[in-house]
From TrEMBL:
SUPFAM superfamilies: NAD(P)-binding Rossmann-fold domains
Keyword Cell inner membrane included in the entry's annotation: no
Record organism: Colocasia esculenta
Gene Ontology CC terms: photosystem II
Domain of life: Eukaryota
PANTHER family reported in the protein's UniProt record: PROTEIN HIGH CHLOROPHYLL FLUORESCENCE PHENOTYPE 244, CHLOROPLASTIC, PTHR47128
Keywords, sorted A to Z: Photosynthesis, Photosystem II
This protein's name: NmrA-like domain-containing protein
InterPro entries, alphabetized: HCF244-like, NAD(P)-bd_dom_sf
Gene Ontology biological-process entries: photosynthesis
Amino acid sequence: MMEQGLIGQYAVPILEEKSVWGTDAPTRIAYMDTQDIARLTFIALRNEKIDNKLLTFAGPRAWTTQEVITLCERLAGQDANVTTVPVSILKFTRQLTRFFQWTNDVADRLAFSEVLSSDTVFSAPMNETYSLLGVDQKDIVTLEKYLQDYFTNILKKLKDLRAQSKQTDIYF
């Protein structure tokens, strides 16, 4: 899974002090940076040993929604305003919206509720993949590192903007 979507879903709302939507699902996802996915795919396409092999890409650790929110809170230095939606409500809403043609699009978008309620861990061991591709696991960006870099950069920019704003304020 891609980490980039987590910025808009969790990091930005926390920084803007808006609601962060989460679920009570125990499902765990091993997020992986899209840049790493692209790099590994490129290496695989150029590697003759990989012909006709199925490779699974996954990040080094699987996270629940609440764990991702907690990590973002720590890195942002502020609490999130979390709105938790029980998965059962998402599933019920999906079933309800499937009855009407004009709400089929909503039902399709709620299909992820079936995945969330499955109590599945979306992860895979990567040792064999790393070995086949000749990649060191240390070169793969972890979710912690990715979000830490984001929050470090954005908080520095916000601090710089505040400093510039104070310099241009005119008081009478």
